[in-house]
Structures are given as structure tokens and as C-alpha cells.
């Protein structure tokens, strides 16, 4: 396509390590001329045809790093773009003030999710203040828009990739959790699974729970220790972090997706990407009772539980009772509109075009 509109995406993430931003780029390079600028975390560089990536050093203390990132954004914006797609970093309102005639779309996909309430309150207050400088704002959910206090906003929902197209058998339950372990209380999930094994008197390798992910605070080691101490190695596999291109075999093997998000107020309007990926791949789910999960999960697509071991155990018992009613084909077909390709085509590209025009 000739004369593509020039779009700049600014972020704190190194390119390729925010699934959302990577997918937005991946499925829109045929429409837009995209440049991405973000920090260099010295992680392996990920390339994507059609996207120019510019890296900013993270040397120095927190203040120096943030100022350096904002300065790099400002310098890049001066080169001239049809649209600047901003993700939130501290001080982002300065970019608006320094570039009053540039065309911005401010994208918000989360509030503060740090466990410390005081830090979260301060972070959220600053974010709301800074976002108020922008007239064109996109959010992932109506709940986030309400928390921002905005009446005018655009919707830009999340999506997921399909990792499996095979028809599932539900004869034996095979659970899969993929995602971060940071502040997720996954040990409660593991304890609930243990209770389920005991309740069902399962002592052979016919019910499996695989956990793929890691966290910064020894969460992985805690789970591994619990599995070892309680002799669960026949029924649990704790695999640590795996990149996306290695996930397909696990989605093909599993028949239940685990979407365990603690029921904290600051998670209530977050939609985990993996929820869509389970459903798009034909897996019914066991998920905690957040506002977004309750909106998305139909009774024929899984069960909703509280965020404690007993409720997780009860949810697994319900899945066991209902397993003959699940249809992976129905689940996949009904949720196919949430694939990243569909989301980008239906929301991201039209939103950027309308913001440019």
C-alpha cells in the first residue's frame, strides 16, 4: 500500500515483550507505517517485518531513566507522525504539553496493580491527572473508563491467539495455567487442586495440572516446594516461563484453562489475555469472579470460583460433573471474534484511521 500513514508507538516495554502492542503491530503493518520506541531491557531483540524499532537506554537511576525515555519520545515526535499512540509512563503529560499540535491517542490498559495500597493510590491519582491532558483516550474496558472518570473514550479491547484447533476430549481433566505468577496467589490454586485430588481419591496420573509462568518473588520455587512436599509430581508439572512460540503443544494437550486472578479491586476490570487464548483454543475455563470474567464467560464455557483453595476445589468438582456438556468446537466458534487478528481489524485499525482523519 502506497502512502501509508505514519504511526509512532511509544512504550516503556522493550519491543516484543508486550503481547498487546506486538499484536497491534503484527496485524496492522499492511495499513500503517509503524515506528516503535521503548526501553532496551537487554533482552533478546525481537524483530517484526514492517516495524522500525528504536531503543532507549535504561542506564542511571529511576529519575534519569524516565527523563531519558520522555526526551527520546519528544525527539522522535519532532520527526513528524500522523498519529502518536501513547502508552502510559510517568510524566507522559509533559509530552502533550511540549507537542501541543501533535495528534495523540492515549491508550490505558491498566491502573496500578502493586500490592502496596499507598503506592497504588498515588500511582492511580497521578495517572488520572496526566490522562486528563488528552482528549483522545482509548481503554480496554468500560470499567477502566469509569475509574478514569471519563465520559468520552474509545474502546480498544484485548484479544488472544489460537493455539489449538483440534476437537477436545474431556474424559480426563487436564488443566493449564499460562501467565505471570506475580501477585497472583497461585499457591492457593495449587492447594485447591490438591484438595480436589484428595476429594476425588485420584492417585494416578490421569488428572494433570501444568503451570507455565514465573514471578519475581520466588513464587515458582514456592509452588515447586509444595508439589515436592506433598508428592504431587505425578499430577503437577511446574514448567516456569516459556515463550509464546512454545505454547501450542500444551494448549493441544490441555482441556481446561485456568484463569486465576485474585479478587482485588485493582484487578476487577483487567481482562487477562490468556482467558481469550484458552477460549479461542476451545478450552472451557475455571476462572475467578472478577467483573470482566463474569461478563465474558458463558455457563457453557466454564465455571466461576472465588479466590481461595476450597472454592477452586469445588469449581473443579463442577467441571468434572459438567464435562460431558462441554464442546470445544462451540467454545472456539463463539469466541473466535476475540482473536488478535479480529480485534485489530475491528477496533485498532478503525480507531487509528478515525484518529488520523
UniProtKB/TrEMBL annotation:
Presence of the UniProt keyword ATP-binding in the record: no
Coiled-coil boundaries: none
Keyword annotations: Glycosyltransferase, Transferase
Pfam families xref list: Glyco_trans_1_4 (PF13692)
Molecular function GO terms recorded: glycosyltransferase activity
Gene3D superfamilies linked: Glycogen Phosphorylase B
Superkingdom, natural source: Bacteria
Keyword NAD: no
PANTHER family hit by this protein: GLYCOSYLTRANSFERASE (PTHR12526), TEICHURONIC ACID BIOSYNTHESIS GLYCOSYLTRANSFERASE TUAH-RELATED (PTHR12526:SF629)
Listed name of the protein: Glycosyl transferase family 1 domain-containing protein
Species whose genome carries this gene: Salegentibacter salarius
Higher taxonomy: Bacteria, Pseudomonadati, Bacteroidota, Flavobacteriia, Flavobacteriales
Amino acid at each position: 500500500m502506497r502512502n501509508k500513514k505514519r504511526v509512532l508507538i511509544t512504550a516503556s516495554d522493550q519491543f516484543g515483550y508486550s503481547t498487546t502492542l506486538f499484536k497491534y503491530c503484527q496485524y496492522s503493518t499492511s495499513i500503517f507505517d509503524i515506528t516503535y520506541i521503548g526501553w532496551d531491557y537487554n533482552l533478546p531483540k525481537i524483530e517484526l517485518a514492517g516495524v522500525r524499532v528504536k531503543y532507549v537506554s535504561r542506564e542511571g537511576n529511576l529519575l534519569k531513566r524516565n527523563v531519558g525515555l520522555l526526551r527520546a519520545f519528544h525527539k522522535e515526535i519532532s520527526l513528524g507522525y500522523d498519529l502518536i499512540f501513547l502508552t502510559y509512563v510517568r510524566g507522559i503529560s509533559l509530552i502533550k504539553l511540549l507537542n501541543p499540535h501533535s495528534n495523540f491517542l492515549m491508550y490505558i490498559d491498566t491502573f496500578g496493580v502493586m500490592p502496596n495500597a499507598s503506592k497504588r493510590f498515588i500511582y492511580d491519582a497521578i495517572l488520572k491527572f496526566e490522562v486528563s491532558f488528552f482528549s483522545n483516550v482509548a481503554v480496554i474496558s468500560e470499567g477502566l473508563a469509569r475509574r478514569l472518570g471519563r465520559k468520552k473514550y474509545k474502546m480498544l479491547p484485548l484479544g488472544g491467539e489460537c493455539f489449538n484447533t483440534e476437537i477436545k476430549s474431556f474424559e480426563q481433566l487436564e488443566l493449564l495455567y499460562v501467565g505471570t505468577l506475580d501477585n497472583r496467589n497461585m499457591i492457593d490454586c495449587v492447594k485447591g487442586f490438591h484438595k480436589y485430588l484428595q476429594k476425588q481419591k485420584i492417585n494416578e496420573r490421569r488428572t494433570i495440572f501444568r503451570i507455565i509462568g514465573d514471578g519475581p518473588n520466588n513464587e515458582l520455587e514456592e509452588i515447586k516446594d509444595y508439589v515436592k512436599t506433598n508428592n504431587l509430581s505425578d499430577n503437577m508439572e511446574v514448567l516456569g516461563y516459556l515463550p509464546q512460540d512454545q505454547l501450542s503443544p500444551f494448549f493441544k494437550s490441555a482441556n481446561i484453562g485456568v484463569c486465576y486472578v485474585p479478587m482485588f479491586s485493582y484487578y476487577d476490570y483487567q481482562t487477562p489475555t490468556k482467558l481469550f487464548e484458552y477460549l479461542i483454543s476451545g478450552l472451557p475455563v475455571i476462572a475467578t469472579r472478577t467483573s470482566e470474567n463474569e461478563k465474558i464467560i458463558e455457563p457453557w464455557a466454564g465455571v466461576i470460583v472465588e479466590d481461595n483453595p476450597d472454592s477452586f476445589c469445588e469449581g473443579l468438582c463442577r467441571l468434572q460433573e459438567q464435562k460431558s456438556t462441554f464442546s470445544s468446537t462451540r467454545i472456539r466458534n463463539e469466541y473466535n471474534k476475540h482473536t488478535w487478528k479480529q480485534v485489530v481489524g475491528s477496533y485498532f485499525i478503525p480507531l487509528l484511521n478515525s484518529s488520523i482523519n
